[in-house]
Structure formats: structure tokens, C-alpha cells
From TrEMBL:
Its main location: cytoplasm. Belongs to the EPSP synthase family. MurA subfamily. Residues 21-75 form the HTH cro/C1-type domain. Pathway: Cell wall biogenesis; peptidoglycan biosynthesis. It comes from Brooklawnia cerclae. This is UDP-N-acetylglucosamine 1-carboxyvinyltransferase. InterPro entries: Cro/C1-type_HTH, Enolpyruvate_Tfrase_dom, Enolpyruvate_Tfrase_sf, Lambda_DNA-bd_dom_sf, MurA_subfamily, RNA3'P_cycl/enolpyr_Trfase_a/b.
Amino acid sequence: MTQTTNPPSVTTSPASIGRLVRDARKQRGLTQHELASLLNTSQSAIHRIESGNQNLSLEMINRIANALESPLITPGAGGTSTNLRIAGNTRLEGSIETRSSKNAAVALLCASLLNRGRTVLRGIAHIEEVNRLVEVLDSIGVRTMWSSDGRDLTIERPDVLDLDNMNADAARRTRSVIMFFGPLLHFNDEFRLPYAGGCQLGARTIQPHLQSLRSFGLNVQATEGYYRATTTKSAEGARTIVLTERGDTVTENTLMAAAMTPGVTTVRNASPNYMVQDLCVFLTMLGVEIEGIGTTTLIVHGREHIETDVTYTISEDPIEAMSLITAAVVTNSELTITRAPIEFLEIELAILQEMGLDFSLGHEYRSGNGFTRLVDITVEPSMLHAHADKIHPMPFPGLNIDNLPFFAVLAATAQGQTLIHDWVYENRAIHLLELNKLGANVQLLDPHRLIVVGPTRWRSRDMVSPPALRPAVCILLAMLAARGTSVLRDTYVINRGYEDLATRLNRLGADITPFYE
């Protein structure tokens, strides 16, 4: 079937056009310097364009389109929906590096509001979740600057944040904006935040956040479209907070509130997950003493004022590493995933070993933050069989909640019947039924439980991406193994959490072509 590629409208924002330029440049394998040479301009000009900090004339847009031999940024009628055309029967080979953590990045962007000094986040991913938060920060007066290679982000906050000017549209496209509560309660007696968005995974209450933050004087009232917050001075002295939910973001919000509350705050039932550990290490670099990092009890010695120039390297993403392991298994490929944070993958690998996966681990080394343990994982082609017990997530150190959907693909590859229990979210399991369109045998027992019967002879399909990040990536990975050519439409949700995934898979032997319409 012939596909028509429609370019985005010229009314697209500079930030959106910048991302299209960057994607098209990387698709052609060009560096910023090489594109600059083709256009007879400077690398810094290309950097400004890709960062969304440069308004472009129609003439310049046409010049860039011609240089990149791409219609993706040609002005004209049409929308900007991102789609992928995926050739199946793929075998991958080589090695691929695990990129930095999405969930750590968004927490650190929020935490940068605590610091009146300069914050540099190294290795931060160019993903839509980060882009949305940067847009929110820019709108309230924070100065953000990308490095010339696009890998590092410098953040400088003003003395007074312009919260009335907050970009509500950007804020509503990310759930991470709820982590503004913890920092902002230190600087404003009253403020409001738009309702948080993100993946469609069912009801996710913010009550645990509000219960914890009341101990720091924050009161929140839900109104139409916004949370309205007021703050009062909290009682001085030591405090103990028992979280009613061992959630990652509620722990992070509590840590940011405690970091600038003088005295000692003990947080019990805290999440020790990877993004929380990243935040703890970052806060210690700001001068906040934290005891118990990596455990469920954190003791925070708060400071009245934080003003430190700090450079922090974000640790690698265990969820992306698990995605790449799944890509190797479903395509029956030999693949090495480098810089994998092993502490947050040990349960997943233990289950896969029981299922018959042949893999090896290299020697341990440290991430750029000096804290997180990394290894290189080599996956060999293997014949998997169903796991004897149900597969279900647990708070760290259990199987990561975000890694559970990949086991639906893995179970569909394995011989036999597997029960998957997604007890956390009401609506995520139902999105995995989309695998049936590609030939899988997935049965929904109830909103939380799936039966998956394998092995699967995957077949190609033209379909719309599920509105949840991890199930959408599961569909993409299954399409790599399908007979024929598949189309996955409206893949913005994948770009929320993965940087250049299609381009990086192509370097391993995949054949994935982005197009817009």
C-alpha cells in the first residue's frame, strides 16, 4: 500500500520544527556541523534551530528541507502526527548504549527549582517529557540552555518565578508537573498548577502527595483545571513522615520539600527506586545531607537556602535497557546492551533466565554520577518457555512496574501459557491486547490480569499506537519480528520516553522509517 507523507503546517512552533529538523538530520546520519556546512551557516545556528530558539523563514525551512532531502519539514498543508513504517523479519546485531533515565531527568528538572545557583544536567535525553517540562520552566522565567552537542542542559532560575505565566498546555501533557509542589512550597504562599497528564493508565490519585506535603505546610484544593495551593509555615523541629504509598514521585516530592525545610525529616516507606536514588545523589551535591539512600527509610537534613553551582550526570535508564533486551529476544538476535544499571534489572534477568534466556554479564563499573552500578549485557538467541509462576511487579527491589509490559511480548515469544498480573494500573493491561492484532494470543481475564499463550508467529499490521508509553513500545518491538511491513501511527507517546529509538535500532539492522501526516 502506498503511503502519503504530508508535511507539517508552517504554523508549527519553533520548538516543533526544531525537533523535526533534528530527527531528519539524525535519520540522514549527519552531525550538526555537517548540516551547518551544507547550509553555509554555523553549528551554533543549527543548535539554536534544533533547540527551538530560532524563528525560521519559509525560505530557510525550504533550504533545510532540501539539504536533508526530506519533505518532513516542508511547509504546506497537513498535520504533524509522527508515524513509523517498520519492515519486519528483522535480525539485530551489534551493541547499543543505554541512554539516561527519563524518570530521573524529570525529577531533576523539578529539583533544579530548589537551587539558586547554576544547575547543569549532563546526558539528559531529548525526549518529549523533558521538552514539555523545559517549556514549563521557560514560561515561568527559568533560563535553560542546551550545550552545542545537545547532550547537556544548563538551568538558571530567577529570583522570583513568574508562575502566573506558566505554560498550562505543556504542563498538562506531562504528569511530572505534580513534582513542582515540593519545590514551589518554599517560595510562594499561593500558587496553582494545571492538572497533570501523561500516559492513559487509569486513575492515579495524588492523595499520597498531599498527605505527605501537609507536613510541610502545603494545602491543595482541586478546582476546574487546576490545583490551587496555599502554604503556611510548618512546625519547626524533627518530623517523621510515613508515606501511605511507596511511590516514586511521592517520595521525590517529599524529598524536595524536606531538602529546604530546616531540621531533620525522616521519611518511612520511601521508594528506593532508581530515579529516587538519582535525586538523592543530586540533592547531596547541593549540600543536603541524606542518610539511607537506596533503602525505604530516608533521613534528610534540610537547609534553609540552596545556592550551589552543580554539574550532575544522570544515570542510565533500566526501562530502556529492558526494552532493548526485549528487542533482542523477540527478533532472536545476538545483541549487547552496554551501560545497563544492573541493580534495577536483576529480578527481570532472573525471571528471563528461568524462561531459558541465554545471556552474559560483563564486569561492573560506575555511572557518570559515581553511584549507579552498570554492566554490559549480551543476549544470545534463545528458545524461551513460559515462566512457571505468574509474573507481577513489586516496588524496588522487585520487578519494575514499568518493565512488566515487556513480559507480555516475551511471554508471547515463549512456548506455553503465562499469567501476567498488572495490579498497579487499571487500564494498562488492556492496551496489551493490541498485540493480538500482530498475531499474539493475549486474553484479558480482568482489568489487571492477562493470559499470554506462545509462541507467536507475528504478522504485520497498520495500526494506531496505544496511548501508553510502554505498551506502545511493545507494539513497535513486536513489529520488528512480524512478517511484512507494519505501520505504527501517532507515536508521540513513544517519543515521550525514548530518544531517537528508531534511528538507534536502525543502526543495529532494523528498517524503520519515520513519516508525518
